[in-house]
Structures are given as C-alpha cells and as structure tokens.
Amino acid sequence: MQRVRPNPAGRSPAPSAAADGGDRRPAVPLLVEVLTLAQRRLTQGLAAVLDEEHCTVDQWRVMRALADDGRAMGELSQGLLIPQASLTRLVDALADDGWVYRSQSDTDRRRIRVHLSRRGRTRLARLDALAAAHESALRAAVGTDALGMDTLGPLVTHLAAGGEIRG
Fold first, then answer.
1. 8-39 pLDDT, tens per residue?
2. What is the chain's percent helix, strand, coil content, to nearest 5?
3. Cα–Cα distance, 153 to 155 (Å, whole number)
4. What is the C-alpha to C-alpha distance for residues 28 and 57, in angstroms, rounded to an integer?
5. Which residues of 106-140 are buried (b: 16+ CB within 10 A; e: fewer)?
6. Helix, strand or coil for residue 112?
7. What is the DSSP string of 28-91?
8. Any long-range contacts for 74-78 (C-beta under 8 Å, 24+ apart)?
9. First CA to last CA across the chain, in angstroms?
10. Which of 76, 90, 115, 151 lies 20 to 30 A from 60 at CA?
C-alpha cells in the first residue's frame, strides 16, 4: 500500500508515476498554455514580417495606439501592457526616426503626450498592410475567410500545435 504524506498546503498530492503503474500520459494542455503558445507563435510570425521594415511588434503596437490621437505615456503604458521604462525606450526610438513626436500637456508640464507624425502615419499604413497580409495567411492556414470567434478555436489550436503559416 502506498503511503501518502500530508501536504502542508492542504491539497491532495498529485499521483506519482509509481502509483498509476508507470503509465504517464501527456497532460491535457491548459487554456493558458495553449493561448500562450499561440500568442508567441503569432507574434513571432508578425515580428518576422515587420522586421523587413525595421520595426518591432511593440513599436507597431505603439504606433497603432496613436493612430487616432495623441496619448499620455501612462495611458499608453497601461493600455498596451508595456512597462513605463520599456515604453520610454520604444517611444525614444520612434521619435529618433521621426515616426512620433512628444508634446507637453498645456495644463500639467509634467505630463507628456505622444503623437503620430505625418511620416509615422504613412509608415503605419505600410506596416498595417503587412500585418493584414500576415493575417490573411493565418486565415488561409486555418481554412477560413473570417477570423471571428467561431474560427478562433481552430486558429489557436493550429498555432499552439506549431502549425506553419505561409504567406
């Protein structure tokens, strides 16, 4: 008979390989694992596409967030889930290349807003076209014309399983 030691956290211990006769079946992946794999593979593919234009995925995301109007740095950081220090480096690089510019708030000189420049808008249109082509390749890999909630499952499964995307 197998002896089980008490778990200090109060949870039942996981069965060991010896307890089940050594039959180790692969665990069913959790949703967070599948989504993380899919997100990383999706980002990896998009990064390769954007790299041809010397742009990172995060730089592209910042530019997209600025497409409508300028945003405060704190607002960008929270909205894009990019740490403030990392966002500052991203915006510095974009400003150095002339894609964005900064301005001080009229009411609070400590608040900095970031805006997409005219050149940045032109660049963003090109980057968005590349991203759209990449998304079309994703749709083709899944075999659907639309990427809606009904097709998200097969897409995520395809990406998480290491499915290739050509296009």
1. 454 444 444 445 555 676 677 777 788 888 88
2. 55, 5, 40
3. 5
4. 31
5. eeeeeebbbebbeebeebbeebeebbeebbebbbe
6. strand
7. PPPHHHHHHHHHHHHHHHHHHHHHTTT--HHHHHHHHHTSSS-EEHHHHHHHHT--HHHHHHHH
8. 76/114
9. 58
10. 151
Tokens (6 digits) for 164: 């290739």
Whether 109 contacts 142, CB under 8 Å: no
The pair of structure tokens assigned to 139 is 């749709």
Asked whether 62 and 76 are in contact (CB, 8 A), the reply is yes
Spatial distance between the Cα atoms of 138 and 156, rounded to a whole number of angstroms: 10
Mean pLDDT by 10 residues, the chain (167 residues): 49 49 69 83 93 96 94 92 96 97 86 95 97 87 64 67 64
Q: What is the pLDDT of residue 12?
A: 45
pTM: 0.71
